[in-house]
Amino acid sequence: YSYFLSGAFYSSFLVVAIKAIRDKIRSDRKAALLEKEKTDSELRFLKSQMNPHFLFNAINSIYVLIKKDPDFAGHTLVKFADMLRYQLYECNADVIPIEKEIGYLDNYIQLEKLRKGDLIRTHYHVSPSTGRFSIAPLLLIPFVENAFKYVSNCPDRDNFVTVDLNFQDNIFELSVENSMDEEAMMPKEKAWGGIGLENVRRRLQLTYDGRHALDISSGDGVFSVLLTIKIQ
Q: Structure pTM?
C-alpha cells in the first residue's frame, strides 16, 4: 500500500513538474515575442521620426534654390523625388543594401552643396571597397545632416564638411567632421543635434548592440563623429 502511495506521489510530482516546465517555456516564449514586438515597434517609430526632420530641411533647401536659380531648383527636385521614393518604398525593410544608402547620401550632399554655395568646402569620399553588404536604413543621414546644420559660416576661415565611408575586414566605418563656431552657438545647442542624434543612438543600440562603436567629440573648432559597425 505504501509503495502504491509513493508511486502515486512521484507520478503526481512528475506531472506537476512537467506542467510547470511547459508553463515556464510558454511564458518565456511569450515574453520574448512581446520584447521582439516592442523592439520592432520602437524601431519603426524611430525610423518614422527621421522623415519630418528630413522633409523640413529638404523643402527649405529647395525653397532657397528657387529664389537663387530655378534650373538648379528643378535639378534638386529630381533628387528630392528620388530621396522620397527611397524613404517611402525602400526603407520598410530591416536592412537594405549599402549602395542604396550611399545613393541617398549622394543626393542629400549634392542638395546641401547647392544650397550652401562656395562658402562651405565639402569633401565626400566613398572607398571602392564599401559595398556588397546590408545596413539598417536611414542610419547614416542624421550625422551628415548634423554636420551641415552646425557647420561654421565665417567669411575669414575655412568652413568645411568632410564625409568618409570605408569598409574593410567586415568593419564599416563612417567618419564625419565639420568646422564649427563655438562662440556663435547658443548654450542649448551645444548638445549637438537634439532628437536626431539621440534617435540614431537608440537605433544603434537596438540593431547593433555589442557590434558598434560611436565616438562623438569636439575641439579646436572641429566637430567629429566616428561610427564603426561590425557587419555579420
A: 0.74
